[in-house]
Amino acid sequence: MIDKEMRSKAKGLVRPLITKPVQPLSSHMHLFLLCILFLSALFLTLSEAVCNLQDRESLIWFSGNVSSSVSPLNWNLSIDCCSWEGITCDDSSDSHVTVISLPSRGLSGTLASSVQNIHRLSRLDLSYNRLSGPLPPGFFSTLDQLMILNLSYNSFNGELPLEQAFGNESNRFFSIQTLDLSSNLLEGEILRSSVYLQGTINLISFNVSNNSFTGPIPSFMCRSSPQLSKLDFSYNDFSGHISQELGRCLRLTVLQAGFNNLSGVIPSEIYNLSELEQLFLPANQLTGKIDNNITRLRKLTSLALYSNHLEGEIPMDIGNLSSLRSLQLHINNINGTVPLSLANCTKLVKLNLRVNQLGGGLTELEFSQLQSLKVLDLGNNSFTGALPDKIFSCKSLTAIRFAGNKLTGEISPQVLELESLSFMGLSDNKLTNITGALSILQGCRKLSTLILAKNFYDETVPSKEDFLSPDGFPKLRIFGVGACRLRGEIPAWLINLNKVEVMDLSMNRFVGSIPGWLGTLPDLFYLDLSDNLLTGELPKELFQLRALMSQKITENNYLELPIFLNPNNVTTNQQYNKLYSFPPTIYIRRNNLTGSIPVEVGQLKVLHILELLGNNLSGSIPDELSNLTNLERLDLSNNNLSGSIPWSLTNLNFLSYFNVANNSLEGPIPSEGQFDTFPKANFEGNPLLCGGVLLTSCKPTRAKENDELNRTFLMGIAIGYFLSFVSILVVRAW
């Protein structure tokens, strides 16, 4: 009953509102409603803009100091900076910025100090950009909540900001866990910033590699950062001794300080780091012995101490490092023998003991236990005895080098069991039977590099084309049998090496002419036939090598082990780690070749080096040589060349060496460009050469005088005809 009465009253109240006509709004009311709508919209907009205003202004200031080669940041398109690219905010009411992550963004410019105003920033990643300039003053200490800082692979320069302590700030602690400043242009001593670093109690990883830092390696972080796991100081200019205090970083797993100027011995305290997995100290000036206590580092997987001055023997208990995967001790003064316990390092993948003073035999070492071994380099030592057959039980081997030892015997057919073998370097030993060696090795299906130089002395190399089976050496790219004093002609079976790119047949006793089919090898770009007994003329076909006529697209560039050459009789070997680091070259020095230099040589536009010295070549220097725009070395000395030096050679802008001494050349030496820098000795032995660096005046020859008379006579006739013609026209005009 009550409900009915209430409903009827309600209807009575509503009905008048419906039945009465709607009155138009006044202008004041209309304006009032518009203001309400505007304020509502503004409120909704502001409620979406949750980004902290100070952080937003700091980011805008940062973006104003950088530009991008990829695409603009476009941070001004939205009011809410939390939605901007690379920005993350926390969940607080005013949404502070906590992350700036813009790696590989193509950014250039400087790092604005406004970033220091983003006080809750916990991660800053600007790696792999092109940012430059110094880091802002006080940069580290103002960002006291920063946990991850990655500015690697930029161009930041100058010294680290000097972080000074004010009042109680010397007792401040910082949250930083990962600090990566690697691959920049930073310099100076790190110790100056120690106030900040000493407060990094949570530091886990510290990487300043690939800069120009100097002074001693800092170690005070080991006192303040008990969680420190990674230290990387490599590729800088640090000097002095390795601090014993590094032994206090008990949780350290990675210690890298290679490629510096460190000296002294490796402190024994380092061997207390029981968690250490990587010890990387190569290319320094370290001395002393490798302490046997190093075998206490049972978790060590990588030990690199190469290119130092270490001496003594390899620790006899090296086999205790059962987790070791890489052992690189090459280029030191280590002596003794290879410890038999090394066979216990069954996880070993790479073993490099090259260039030491190791000796003894290798047949007792149980290589069969090293089933994971892929790379073995024992070159340039004094190992004796037979080539160890047990090595062929390492089924994973891809690269072997025993070069520069005193090994004897023949190559065993067991080498065919190494199905993954791609690199074999056995040069400078006392191996015999080259016919047997080549017969066996041509069956290695993946072999791409074969260097047998300085072996098989005075043997006759097999020469018939059918010596090589149709599928022999299917992937061979580098072939070297130099300095073996091999007899016979250049082997005809070489024509079947369709993949060969580098071929060294130098310093042998090959006779006969240079076969033209060498010019048909499609990928050959480096050929050395020097110091043989070759006769005849240079075949035109040789100067049609396709790989020297146009640039080849590189692939499979890296070599399994570096290759060392001794070009141009220099005292130090040139090291090549990539196949295409070899300069495109033709060496045919010191043979008995006759005839002229074919004009077809001008087709080899990729050629960098051409050396034909010490032959009996005659004729003129081809003007077509000026087409070789990449040529860096040209040596035609000690021949019978005549005529003049083409002035067009001055257009060879990369030519850094030119030698035509001891020929029969005549006329002026070109005096433009780099020709003014070549030494006098490179032109001597040519009595009729003049001018240039010889500092002798060029007297006109009889032929030149006749040419001058002829030109004068012809000029006189031309002038006479012209004057006669003009006089006739004048007479007719009158």
Automatic annotation (TrEMBL):
Keywords: Cell membrane, Glycoprotein, Leucine-rich repeat, Membrane, Receptor, Repeat, Signal, Transmembrane, Transmembrane helix. The chain crosses the membrane at residues 712-731. InterPro entries: Leu-rich_rpt, Leu-rich_rpt_typical-subtyp, LRR_dom_sf, LRR_N_plant-typ, Plant_LRR-RLKs. GO terms for cellular component: plasma membrane. SUPFAM superfamilies: L domain-like. It is found in: Cell membrane. The keyword Repeat applies. Its main location: membrane. It comes from the Eukaryota. The keyword Protein biosynthesis does not apply. It is a single-pass type I membrane protein. Residues 53-90 form the Leucine-rich repeat-containing N-terminal plant-type domain. PROSITE patterns: LRR. It holds the Pfam family LRR_1. Belongs to the RLP family. This is Receptor like protein 2. The lineage of its organism: Eukaryota, Viridiplantae, Streptophyta, Embryophyta, Tracheophyta.
